[in-house]
Amino acid sequence: MVHNLFKGDTPVSYERGALVSNPWFPQSRTPPGLYRLARWFRRISLVILVVVILFLASAAYSAVEVVRSGPTAGNFSASFDSNDTVAVTGDLNFSNHGFYPISAFSVHVRVLNQSSVYLGQGSFGPVTLASGALQPITIAFYLPIETSGPGASLLTENQVLNVSVWGNATYAYLIPVSIAVETNKSWGAPFADLQVSVGAPVPVSGGYAVPVTIQWQNHASFDEAGTLDFSVVSANGPSCGGSSFPVSVPPGGSFDQTKDVSIVSGCSPAGGTVAAEYLSGGLTIPLPPEPIP
Amino acid sequence: MSAEVPPRPIGYRIPSLSYRILAGGLRLLPLIVILVGIPVALLTFLSTHGLHVPISILTVTVAGLAISVLSTARYILKPTRAYGPLSMAVSVVTILYLLTFFLAATLVFGLPQHGISVGIGVEGVIGLLLLVPGLGLAAGIVTTIEDVRSPRERLPFDYPP
Predict the structure, then answer these.
(1) Is A2 on the interface with B (CB under 8 A)?
(2) Could you tell me if residue A173 is left (phi over 0), alpha (psi between -120 and 50 degrees) or otherwise beta?
(3) Chain B closest-CA separation from residue A19 CA (Å)
């Protein structure tokens, strides 16, 4: 059989199994330089391919171990905090059971109210979790509850909050990973269904008084213990009188109390409002003013 | 004083064309399984479970077939001058294929019904993988130059007797 493998070459015999010699061929078994160079390129690329495949396989197995161990949720709590806020604090325990470190690990939380108005956010990190490390994560974020702000309704209305949690990290030195979870969480208002009613004036010695009834339900996850100061404010501004209630309402409990408030002579509460403040642990939480019919 | 013995000339033994076609065809099957079958099955599995991967099945199929066929042609034509250019062609197609992943940068897996999305950055891994066809391209260029400068020079080493 004759093959003309290279155009322009003299046909040579390539019978299978036949030993062929030719003066053009190298006279030794040392491959020529270009051949060796090409061979080294191929060998190095093969080594890189094998290393990358082994790396990816081990990273995938390791990632499965991390996911299987998963983060465990600790306590989530809410409480009134300074600057007219509710502090929500959550604990997670994250363990890295994989072979590779998780670097630049950070977690962020953002909360919108049911009208998609931004309420607040919190974050954790960045930290590096070495292989085998157990990392407690505490995330605290503060929801504004000042009466003029977007979070005022958190005090008195149960609602569904849109909570977005996202985390970023670099896994196994090379692989950036991001995870985003969007979920809805129900919010229990600490002064849910707050209602204030003012009764008809009754004469008392030196003037007259009005019975003021305040009621609400504590749908929050924390105790309410403190004092509720309130004042009856007339329609044109000045306070007609005020008083206070001691408050001790556990989660799920309700408050419903009435007290007679002496009214300043000449001050009419009709058409005005009842302004109340909840005082606890050195904090003052103003409640939304309730109109007097 | 003994006379120096000249080195024994070496030859080569090239398998016949029909043998190479048969072997190439057998070699093509696992290539298609690895480069087309498994990736398409993986993409299908992910999509049936609601996970969206920004690489289409068509892209994976076309690129996998192209690499498999070119690689087989390179194997069959290894004793010829076409080997170098075909090596370059395989490498270039592989580089272009990997670049589609590289340009996607982040593969996002979404589970909309659970409000969960996971993004995985692939640029680092793809960057490493690009070295493989890059070096293959360099090898193809060197082989092409070698075949032009010294035809059949490599045959005794590619097909030793």
Answers:
(1) no
(2) left
(3) 6
Contact A70/B at CB under 8 A: no
Contact flag B146-A39 (C-beta cutoff 8 Å): no
Q: Kindly report the pTM of this predicted structure.
A: 0.72
Cβ-based neighbour number of residue A105 at 10 Å:
22
Taking only the tens place, the pLDDT of each residue in A15-74 is 444 444 454 554 457 889 999 999 999 999 999 999 999 999 999 899 888 888 777 776
**Yes or no, beta carbons of A177 and B119 under 8 Å apart:** yes
Q: What is the distance in angstroms between the Cα of A239 and the nearest Cα belonging to chain B?
A: 50
Q: How far is CA A8 from CA A34, A187, B54, in A?
A: 22, 85, 49
